[in-house]
Design goal:
Strand content: 15-25%
Distance between the termini: 14 Å
Structural class: alpha/beta
Largest sheet: 8 strands, parallel, barrel
Radius of gyration: 18 Å
Number of helices: 9
Number of strands: 12
Amino acid sequence: MATGESSRTRPLLGAHMSIGGGVGEALLRGQSVGCECIQIFTKSSRQWASKPYAEEEVKTFRERQAEIGIAIVVAHDSYLLNLGAPDERLRKRSVGGFIDELERCEMLGIPNLIAHPGSHVGSGEETGIKTIARSIDEAHAACPGYKVRVTLELTAGQGTNLGCSFGQMRQIFDRVKRNELLRLCFDTEHAFAAGYDLRTDEGYEQTFGELAEAIGIDLLAAFHLNDSKKPFKSRVDRHEHIGKGHMGLEPFRRLLNDPRFGGLPMCLETPKGPDLKEDVENLTTLRDLFA
């Protein structure tokens, strides 16, 4: 360690990486931009059907992760799934797809499957929360003994999306039978859009005070680091590069230097092109904020 360098444990920084060419390729992409953790889709996020992993693909992924030294890989579920769907056919299809993703995570040794809780699509908040909890219960029942944890992501509250407040999340947690298996993912842009203002010391402390009271800091398993293209409390899910949106740099400085979050994975979901140079720039910006 260089003289004067902080001995505090900072969070692990990384980004969402494409699995094009195979899940193991995501690790190489992450390595190329200096990721300490990465997030992936376990299969195409925009298709219901996907072929099972070949045994060799799983073996390559596990060996490559160990060789490269990327400490943590988390997964994000498909955008097609809606665990809160009032249409029973869609709900069952979503639960089936969710179980398939949990199985894939278990095969790869991924500890957290991050998921937007779901949308009530007009059925109402209370009914939607009950439906989400029932869907998660069914997934848990189908995956006994699994190490991977369902990790619900705070949402921006766009449309009929649920999970945009710690209060809603608490209701979901309370209704899930095996809620000791649940974890939470905090997305900075979603929180900002939903009405949690991280731009001031007071707003930051209030936000995480509410989270601690409603859910518990110990249940935070991952962060998504995104600035916002839209103003505060917009309820719109639009990500921007770090420090170039309506949030600015200070929220990220606070997060990176908060000792409660040392060692947790923090992944970018910011816009990028095929050469990933934007990820390099955003990661550099974030690392410069660690005091």
